[in-house]
Amino acid sequence: MHVLVVGSGAREHALLLALRRDPEVDGLSIAPGNAGTAAIADQYEVDATSGEAVTALAKRIGADLVVIGPEVPLVLGVADALRAAGVPCFGPTKDAARIEGSKSFAKDVMTAAGVRTAVSEIVDNPANLDAALDRFGPPGGQAAWVVKDDGLAAGKGVVVTTEREAARAHAASLLDAGHPVLLESFLDGPEVSLFCVVDGETVVPLLPAQDFKRVGDGDTGPNTGGMGAYTPLPWLPDEVTRRIVDEIVKPVAVELVRRGSSFSGLLYAGVAITSNGPAVVEFNCRFGDPETQAVLALLDSPLGQLLRAAATGELASQPPLQWRHGAAVTVVLAAENYPGRPRVGDVIHGADAPSVLHAGTARRDDGSVVSSGGRVLSVVGVGDDLTSARESAYSAISAIRLPGSHFRHDIGQAAAEGRISLQP
Ligand code: GLY
């Protein structure tokens, strides 16, 4: 099986590494890729947002399966173009990808499916903003304002704040840019990312993970696209994972089928474990980054066969997934000033180590690897438990040199120290 992966981040680098372990995968290509993925797959330039361009590439190289990493091509219908041309594709149609691309669509599906989520309201007229802010945040009731871009925003469209002015400023800037704003009630409790391979009503969950969205240690600073992750979650009983599948993911998959928007691909449920049980924070229509780097590091089952089964309607007949014992931790190395405009173009030393997954990197003609984006790379540590996986990840990241770069020091720490508990 020749697999073409579309994307250029550490998530796609992790997908390639896991696909390479599948004995049925004998060809690997990536488009557009990065400096790290070029070493393990044939790399092609492509406009990843163009269904026509991706389909032409898949046909030209004889891909048997295309795996689409990021959300933007999916929301734009790249998977539809591939399917229409008869190329098996892991990734939902444009219609089903609205579960991530439109928060109001996702809310509508959840309401119809009876799935618990935050109470919310769309504001698309600045004249209604102040009254809506009064309904949705402190004082008195809610712990914080939650202000989201209704559309895609690469993880940076969300502000959670106790400061009314900060909430108002974020909402006003979105409205000024012509983006409807979603105000939500605050969901208290630790968050879980549960990735499920889905085809129609068939749902196969992967290991639950947790990511770290704020830029600074102790969950301080602005939101980012993700600064680290770990899996599995020692504080999450299997019973709660089953509830996420049975009470959230399956009903949403069934509802999408019922309304003619059947989902095939990776349905990512971002869930808060509140005192009233699991409640949805968001859905994504693709593998999460950086959780994928940790989750796939523990997958023993052949990934290519799993994704091909979902793409060809055979997911229900797949054997149960096998996982490596232990834990995995991803730590993201970010460029100076990220999540603001990142400093780029600096030489990275140590980027070619095997535990390094590239994202914002490029290779210069002299062979050196330079930074080219905000989230530059991820390291993955695997160990018998979370403590040893953390040690391995932090030892790997300390061997990398990039001027001005930064990373969080507390990925998985609270869980390793037994400091995460569920509310009664
Ligand atoms: N881990 C957050 C995301 O992938 O959107």
Radius of gyration: 21 Å
Report how far the terminal alpha carbons are from each other: 48 Å
Largest sheet: 5 strands, parallel
Instruction: Say how many strands there are.
Output: 22
Output the strand order for the largest sheet: 3-2-1-4-5
- Describe the oligomeric state of these chains in a short phrase: single chain
Large-scale geometry? globular
Average pLDDT reading? 95
Estimated helix fraction: 25-40%
- Structural class determined from secondary elements: alpha+beta
List unreliable stretches of 5+ residues.
none
GO molecular function, one term: phosphoribosylamine-glycine ligase activity
Family: Belongs to the GARS family.
Domain ATP-grasp: 107-312
Protein name: Phosphoribosylamine--glycine ligase
